[in-house]
Amino acid sequence: MALKGVEVIETPLPKPSSEDYVVARLLEAVVEARLALHFVKEGLVRDAAGKAFQAWRTVLAALLRLELERLKAIAKSEEERRWLEERAVPRVPTSRMISLSLMLEQVGYRGVLADTNTALNIHDYQYHGPDPDMALSRYRTREEAALNILFLIGEVARLVEGLKARVKPSAELETALEDLKRELRNLAPL
């Protein structure tokens, strides 16, 4: 089954300094979230985990770009300000997602840290699968992981919906987001 909009994740991004960067990242996040949802429906939970994690990471990139000046204002050094602009926004390193989320919490994005923790747990699940002992993964079963993936997809949709007012959303973003929200509403319980 081909999903509409998948080619979005294959096209080059605008430069992070461009106004179109945030809209492109939000669209990419929605497309990744829809792919994750598709994989959950097909029972491919580990594949869904990878897509859900990427969707969240992409939302963080959009948030970091939108709030770059406020984040630079709370940065502790010139080196950290330069790192935010040159490395954090375009790449969102997995190893720094917690610290970046803490900074976003400081500028008013309540709940981002908890969602980032969920995303990182899902990321672990992608590599280790279900773990009854919970040594390598926080999820004992596929079902637990799938429910958390659906939760994270819902958070992606909620955040993108809220951020649309701050950017000039493209028709493609509007359509993709409405499709994602409709698919989430129509999802039968797992």
UniProtKB/TrEMBL annotation:
Pfam families recorded: PaREP1
Protein name: PaREP1 domain containing protein
Organism encoding this protein: Pyrobaculum arsenaticum
